[in-house]
Amino acid sequence: MLDKLLKISVLFDFYGALLTEKQQRCLEMHFLNDLSLSEIADQFGVSRQAIYDIIHRSEQVLEEYEKKLGLVERYQREKQEIQEIYDAVDNLPASLNDRVEIRDILIKLSKLIGKTEEAEHDF
After folding, report:
1. Which among 36, 33, 65 is positioned nearest to 48, based on CA atoms?
2. Cα distance from N-terminal residue to C-terminal residue, the chain
3. CB atoms near residue 119 (< 10 Å)
4. What count of Cα atoms within 13 Å lies in the side-chain half-sphere of residue 39?
5. Which pLDDT does position 5 carry in this prediction?
6. Containing H/E element for 108?
7. CA pair distance 111, 19, nearest whole angstrom
8. What does the alpha-carbon distance between residue 21 and residue 76 come to, in Å, rounded to a whole number?
9. Any idea which fold 2-69 has?
């Protein structure tokens, strides 16, 4: 279930704006707010089955967008490549790592791979 939650969360981050407002709200309520189908159905005044259908269809739509556009796959691949570049630069001999240009590259790469601002102080 955690894998599915993570997958839907990532797809939603990339493609959520392409869903209808109702689809967006149902996914947010179910996956982000951890509401049950019955709780969501009560808020919308529809059946539990209707909410299940909306969520199921929304998941399919998100997966179809990823199949066609591949933005998540591309993002993950590029992030991995940037991580590899970061690691290669970070592992340069200490004499090169002391150069300001190398430190600047490491700082920029660390931001791209999501390292914290504190990481800048390590350089």
Report:
1. 36
2. 39
3. 15
4. 10
5. 87
6. helix 100-112
7. 30
8. 27
9. Arc Repressor Mutant, subunit A (1.10.10)
Q: What is the spatial distance between Cα 105 and Cα 111, in angstroms, rounded to a whole number?
A: 10
Give how far Cα 115 sits from Cα of 42, 94, 96, 110, 118, Å: 41, 21, 22, 5, 8
pTM over 0.85: no
Q: Which residues contact 103 (CB under 8 A, 6 or more apart)?
A: 97, 123
Q: What is the pLDDT averaged over residues 113-119?
A: 62
Residues with Cβ within 8 Å of residue 48, at least 6 apart in sequence: 37, 38, 41
What are 33's two structure tokens? Answer: 């707010």
Domain boundaries, the chain: 2-69, 74-122
